[in-house]
Every structure is written in structure tokens, then in C-alpha cells.
Design goal:
This protein is α/β, with parallel strands linked by helices. It is 35% helix and 25% strand. It has helices spanning 48-55, 76-79, 97-107, 113-122, 138-150, 168-183, 218-225, 230-245; strands spanning 10-19, 22-32, 37-41, 63-68, 71-72, 82-85, 156-160, 187-192, 203-208, 211-216. Helix 6 links the parallel strand 7 and strand 8 (187-192). Helix 3 packs across helix 4 (113-122). The radius of gyration is 18 Å and the shape is globular.
Amino acid sequence: MTDAVPGPAIEADGLIKRFGDLRAVDDVSFELAPGRIYGLLGPNGSGKTTLIRLLTGMTRPTEGTATVLGARMPSRPALARLGYMTQSDGIYPALTVRENAAFFAATYGVRDAAAVDAALAVVDLADRARTVAATLSGGQRRRLSLACALVHRPPILFLDEPTVGIDPLLRVEFWAHFRRLAGAGTTLVVSSHVMDEADRCDELLFMRAGRVIARGDGGDLRARAGTADLEAAFLRLDRKSTRLNS
């Protein structure tokens, strides 16, 4: 069970990130309550990864503030209570599965062998603990990346395109893990451009061109767009947002 978080787990207030003339994140504001799965949905290049990097303190905003667990980011104490699974596999290929998980646990001050065992069990890699990471399959490397992100049992977990390139069965297993974590009180922010994963989230934030163009659960967003198809709902809400901002 994760620590209880009073108030919003995550807050964005007028976040803007510029790269030259490009606004990768363009005036984003929201509050996210703890213990839920939030989906950042949008096409590649919509600003999802940059927004996650702002929320985790990996990059500083041009304008605005990001607050996580009551701390303005970037914050080293708050960072120690976050988990972050990047798009690419953030593991060390020369180390074994267990050594990778133990290394990431130690970076967060966790030296409990039981925590490493538990993380590997969650992703079904306990029987591969002594396997060198370089010899793992692509799906197994994604499993190990997830174990390294959650080994210190963070109350907030950011997952950037966690299911890209994995088979359908493993995708189902990942989402079962995510649901169990949320049930135990963890707040998850999951980015994806795969619309069929959207209904697995408690709430969605549609992103386009650096902006959050709509927010709600899948049923609400479909109803607002007047369609039963979530991808069509995204396109309709995108067109509506474009008209309102033109």
C-alpha cells in the first residue's frame, strides 16, 4: 500500500515548454487525484513525453509550474518518490535481471532484497533473475524496465508508451499490473497513442499540438463528441478545439 496523498497528487499550472519557436507543451493546467490511472492520449509529437518530463522534473518549464506530492518540480526529495518508465528500455544490458532491479532500488535508497524479489515477481521475471539483460527478449526487457520503475514502491508512476512493441498478451498483463497498483493507491500517468488502450484508464487527457484538448472518461468523451468510436471522438474534439482557438 502506498502512502496516502492529501489533495491532488499532481498539479500543472500554466505549463509551457518552448524549443525555439515550437511550443511542445502549450499552457497546460490540470489537477490529478491520487489512486487513479490517467491516460495521456494523442498522436506522436503531441507533447506527451515533454509533459511527463516536466511533471517529473527532468526538464524545467519555460513558464508555469508542476507540483507533485505537494512539491514544486524539480525537487530531489519528490523525485525519490516517483517511478518513471521511459519509452526506451532504461536498463543495463551487461547486468543480470536481479542486478538491474537491485541497482535501481539502491538509487532510491532501497536495499531490501524482498523489494527486489517482489518487483521481479510482479512482472513475472523471478525465474530469470540471474539472466544477463542483454539476452532477454524485447518483451522481457520491457518487463524489466517496469520492475526497475516500481521497485521502490513509488506513490506515483509515470509510464511513457509502456506497451509499444510488445505482444497483445503481454499488453494485457501489463494493464493488469497497472490496475492492481492503482487499487493499492498508486497514481499512474500512462502515455499512449494506441486508442484501444484508452478504456483501461480511469480518466483520459487528449493531447494535440502541446495542448490538452479534452478530458474525461471514455464514455464521457464519446458522448461529448457524439460517436461511439473513441478515435473518431478524438478527431471531432480536435477539430472543435482548433475552431475555438483559431
